[in-house]
Amino acid sequence: MGGYERNAKQLVSRAVAAVHATAVQSITDGAKSGETYEKYNPRRTHRASAEGEPPAADTGYLHSNIFMDIDNDGLGGSVESRAEYSAYLEFGTATMGARPFMQPALEENRSKIRQLAVSLMRTRGR
Description:
The protein is an alpha+beta fold.
């Protein structure tokens, strides 16, 4: 495997890891401004996210079900949420506004990924 292919695989791996980390962090960190609820089993107080904010972590199920996959050849990859209700949060429903977390994670990393790709293309030109 040549240096260019090795660098391309490293770029894919770094890009996928960055988007994954940002998606998880958006759920687990930061103050949410939605309603506060009393929850039971176990008993706790939960502050929900408001429309437009990433979902607020409660049980940990959502952020523990965000996975990154690298293609077998290492030249492509994806980040996906496998929680059954992910699409409802990301896009909203007829009765609940969206709480996007996947697309914003990609957007937040887009310029970094682009810079990595430009750097890779420059190394190929040498």
